[in-house]
Design goal:
Blueprint (H helix, E strand, L loop, with lengths): L5 E5 L4 H11 L5 E6 L2 H14 L6 E6 L13 H6 L1 H12 L4 H6 L1 H7 L12 E4 L3 H6 L3 H12 L3 H16 L3 H19 L3 E5 L22 H21 L6 E5 L4 E2 L3 E6 L1 E2 L2 E2 L11 E2 L5 E2 L14 E6 L5 E2 L1 H8 L6 E2 L1 H12 L21 H21 L12 H17 L2 H6 L2 H14 L1 H9 L4 E2 L5 E3 L9 H4 L2 E2 L2 H10 L2 E2 L2 H20 L29 H12 L8
Parallel strand pairs: 1-2, 1-4, 2-3, 4-5, 5-6, 7-15, 16-19
Antiparallel strand pairs: 8-13, 9-10, 11-17, 12-18, 13-14, 16-17
Length: about 575
Amino acid sequence: MLKGKTILVIGGYGLVGRAISRELMAHQPDTLLITSLLEDEAKHAVTDLRREFPDSDTKLLPLWGNIFVRTTLKDVPRAKVLALPEWREQIYRDVIESRTPELVESSFLVQLISGTTREYPGVKPHIVIDAVNTATALAYQDIYHSAAEVHDLYEQAEEAWQETSWAVVEKLLISLYIPQLVRHIQILDAAMREAGTEAYLKIGTSGTGGMGMNIPYTHGEEKPSRVLLSKAAVAGAHTSLLFLMGRTPGGPAVKEIKPTAAITWKNIGYGPIKKRGRPIALLDCPPEQGAKLVSGAQFNLNAHPAQTSDEFMESVFIDTGENGFFSVGEFTAITTLGQMEAVTPEDIAINVVNELRGINTGKDVVSAIDSAVLGPSYRAGFMRQRAIAFASHLEAEQDVASIAFEILGPPKLSKLLFEACLLKTAFRTLDTVAQTAPAQIMDGLTRLVSASATIRKQAVSVGIPILMPDGETLLCVNRGAGEHRWERTVWEVTPAAINRWAETEWIDLRLENMARWQRRMRNIMAEAQAMPSPARDSSSRYGRVMSNPETWLLDPEINIGEVAGWIFNYEEQGQRMKG
């Protein structure tokens, strides 16, 4: 079915798209159209394939641009589109108003499918494979932030409302998820029917890495996060629309592969840590420069000038493709047993190609939604320890702790990883922390934060401040980013507000939190000691089998990622229900 065909891989530069393209090459398609958002990405993907398959006769053609807009805007960054009234109005009409023939013909996605691109006229794909994470692309426009802007504007003076009202409202309207998704599916369906496309296969998402409403990762104060649930809702709506498309006569065969685990990894190395393509500046806030949290006063980080630095964060990273760089701690925590766990892009690619060849994998969501999710794989579980061991070796070799970069998203995870790293640095083992009084733990961590800038710099540089034991001194910097709500809004300093941020986003060195950590370590040790040794029970019953009751996970030292994962599994009740 694949030999001699023209196949379009949308998102071909991404982690999954590249794996699918490599898998397709073995089946000798006539042409592979490889698309990505950026020109250099598409060309790089094609260059890599040509290097890897030098003897292949398959024609490899790069194309690039945003598939959700018309061709004239495909290479314009969204921020620039939103900034110019004429472009913003064009997007508004394209998304909100009725579909017109002119809109369909002008769509970059339609031109890719119909073979009417300027670069390759007449090259029309028989098969379309869509590896773009559509739900993320739409839901992470964050309608809630836009709605808050409209509300804030409305409460301002009437003059300000008159001057800027339509621009802000228009931005909100074109951020609505469902209209964008519906228009995308309308255009996609019309294009494939007109072009006579034989098959369409979508790489979808569950929105939560296969986890449920108890997912412990958040994008703000709430749990579960509105933004994350919006992503899951868009993913579900997308699947429903594909289901309808697949039941409509005259269209292509429609399939969806929906991975339900963290998709990893692309590369492991040491070097500058980049977020959205830019290196993270290494900033600092010594204790004597900490902000004072005075009860009843207004906290406004933007009142302080943003810090600058000539230093940039360098560490060991695990490159997860579109999801960015993960620290060893972050990777360990989200892939540990009971969290997102992992699936490799190769697992996905094999299933994609088999489905297109007519082999029933049982993983097509459109034909069997309930049973088709692609869960954690044996391959990823087998190779996970090798990846962590290699990255840990690089940590030792470079004399650096790969803790948290805050690229993954949830500040609660970063907070826990930094706190666990401080405990590991000061006390080394689980048992030592379990046997040490909270006041001594607090003193030890305070001395460490004050005397050593290494961990302190990493934390404040990624937006995780340190609340000192007095509950009033906050080691923080103005990064000029405003990624976390406590950074970008003015809020009143109250005990409740301090406790809220300290619980979810700040490193908390207060006595109560130290007592909490002592209890955690005691609970972990109790769990370890309660597990039978292999001599008494060597069955598959236990996920974590102890060879020595004095250790946990066969590691005497604190494993920050595993500890964070344990907290998510048990304290947060965030353990996945199905493997």
